[in-house]
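User: quick one
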Amino acid sequence: MKLNYNYDGNIACRTILQDQLEKLNISYQLLDLGQIEISDDIADDSFEELQTSLNRFAIHIIDNPKAQLIQRIKDAIIEIVYDKDKFPNTTISQYLSDKLNYRYGYITNVFSEYTYTSIENFIIIQKIERAKKLIIEEKLSLTEISYELNYSSVAYLSTQFKKVTGLTPSMFKRVIDRRRKLSNTE
Amino acid sequence: MIAHQDPMHILLADDDEDDRAFFSEAITELKMDNKLTLFEDGKGLMDYLLNPDIKLPHILFLDLNMPGKTGLDCLKEIRANSRFKDVSVAIYSTSSSEKDIEDTFIEGANIYIKKPNDFSMLKKVIKEVINMNWQFHTSGLNIETFFFSI
Amino acid sequence: MKFLKLFKNSQVFKLALGVAILVVCYFGSKFFSQMQKLNSTLELIAKSNETQLELEKLLSIINSYDYSLRNYIITKDESYLQNRFLNRGIIEEGIKKLKVLTANDSLRSKDIQTLEKLINYRFKLFRETLIAAKSSNVDQLGLNSKLKRSNDYTEMMKMFVYKIINSERLKTKFENSNHQFELQDSLITAFLLIILSLLILLLSFNKTNIDVEELRQANDKLKLLNESFNSAEKTAGFGHWMVNLETDEYTFSDNLYRLMGVEPNAFEANLENSIKYFHPDDLEYVSKVHKDSLLNQQSTSIVFRFLTPNNEIKYIMGVGSFTKDGNGNLIKIGVNYDITNEYKKTLELEENNKELKYINTELESFNNIVSHDLQEPLRKIQMFISRLEEKEFDSLSQQGIDYFSKIRIAANRMQTLLIDLVDYSRTIKGDKVFVETDLNKILTDTIQDLATNIEEKNAVIQIGKLPTIKAIPFQLKQLFINLVSNSLKYTKDDVPPQISVFSNEIADEEIFEYKIANKEDFYKIVISDNGIGFKQEYSDKIFLLFKRLETDAKYAGTGLGLAICNRIVDNHKGFIKVKSSPNEGANFYVFLPKGDLI
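Assistant: Done. Structure below.
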């Protein structure tokens, strides 16, 4: 039989981290934004062991500082997209700059250099990704979803959805439904 | 995690010689670090893919209207095989019918490209598709809901 | 006339007849009693006359007796006394008779008794006188006194008898006059009787006549009906038959014979004779159905063939049912229709249908060819041109660049045309599935599809509440896409397009103008914009295939868009109209039927 599930990546990730760190007897402190504070210095082989065990879960320890920043930026953005309450009253740039303690100009440059895309674009992609999730969940109407994602109107959401995916939200839903039906009959 | 520095491994299956040439030229002119492999029919493509020694492609472009094994047949086979679950499949077709697009997405395609009739447009499209695909892979987004139609 | 009507009413008539008969009986009995009375009167008169006669006879005999005695006395001739005993006998007879005659009359009886006494005494006197006369010693004085006494007595007797006779005569007279009256009475009665009888007879006769006339008329009508029914059968091509299931008697109508290809009544109506007119292949089936129906008395309805003597095949629909006739006998009646024409037409229709299906399939494959196989080489041309333009840009002369540009434009135009053609043919395709379609959703989808274009043009789209109707969803979407695209395309240069789509009530002028039978039958959907508009005189032309207006030159278009819209609206049994004027935008009115006109 088939089970449908959803997940909170963040919590899953942190749980795995905790399990792995405890298994290797490494004392730690989980910070937010994808950072862990390890109390002592770890030996190289333990570090390698940690890396390997985490790799199984597709969790990678970033050692490049710039890459680390990128990851933090991404995490910050994901956080505000997935929690409406955390959405800042200020502009995104102001928010990120404050949160990560860097000049916004620097943040954008690093981001573009590494991801070959702009922060704005990334935000949009994340928003649309969440919109997809909400559409699949079928709990909220399209209007409610657009409100949840801080769009000024359903039309604006639809426009952006179509820009990003090339599909209209209704077409997207249709495809998901038909896929579900197809896999149910198999 | 697929860093952009790694050469992107791309496959194309299209029975039309000219289309293969266009695609290849476009990729070349884009100057992205890509490795492109061309196939002229579905059977060739599937034979290659099913070889356990090969390195899996990041993205695979499939023409729909191929004689023998059609793009849709290949798509079904690929999606039925869990080995290829992380491979993005782009359908590359002349049809712009909404029904065709929907049908291919339902069968598991991630990207649908209507073959453009202008070369610069082709370059633009390929670039966007590759970018979009990479964004998806690097952002840990759900490949099952990854749809992109252009 | 009311009386006549009453008269015609047979109940009333029976009553009247009864009354009349009673009256006649009454008069008849009256007449009978009168006759009896007359009879008795006559008897009485006869009796009286006879009495008188007898009395006269008596008197004459007594007289003759007297004379005889006198003569003897005078002549002393014995021969005069010869008859005295005989006469006596006659007198006795007479008295007897009189007694009988007067038996019923007590008074008269008494008189006769008296007379008898008198006569007896008279004879006594006779005897005495005779004795006196016969003696040798005739006492002349004594004789004379005896004679005188006899004479007086005779006179007295005569007087008495005359009295009786008179009284009888009076009686006779009285009876006679009575008799006259009675005769008159009875004549009147007889007359009345005759009149009444005649009247009754006449009236009965009249009534019978009327009834007969009515019957005759009814019969005539029936005959006429029968005739017209027969000719109706002939005209409509059906015949009927009847079989009385108790007597196994068959009846065939004239036209049934004709259906079988023979003259009416060409053979005796029964099952065996008609068998040879059924098509041999159908015979078994028909007999089975018929026999089965006789068992369970269910109505039958079958199609079979007659084979006429001219070898003509007729397709017949036969319907049979059971009922009871006037006598309560079960009969099966059936009607056979000649459906040869209909059958042939149906075959033709099926043929046509098959052909149409074939044409449809051909059209579909043609469609496929256009949509794929034609577009492919075209796309290649475009691609290569764009490659050339890019790569060989430097080695081309200006003219060369121009030429290539023109080739590209022409190729693009051809592509647009092909796409539009595909859209158009999709609206013609046969398999149209109508489902409940929410037009609001269709419109939202349309706007989503055109989102990029809308944003580019800064267009503002206002939508009202649209109805849900039975329609082909993809076609209505095409309709909306085409209309909204047009509104987005044909805009004034610096004016952002404002498009509104809403539903409205049909105005009275529109009922008249568009000849709508009932405004409750249609929904009216309005798509209006603030674009460049066009002259109203073209309002019909623009829906024609490939028709473009002069103002369209600078706007890309194929001339198919509105023709497709027209086609789609037509498929839904609606219609589309437009109102516009140059620079005043355009208002498109789409009328779609509400109910099950589809």
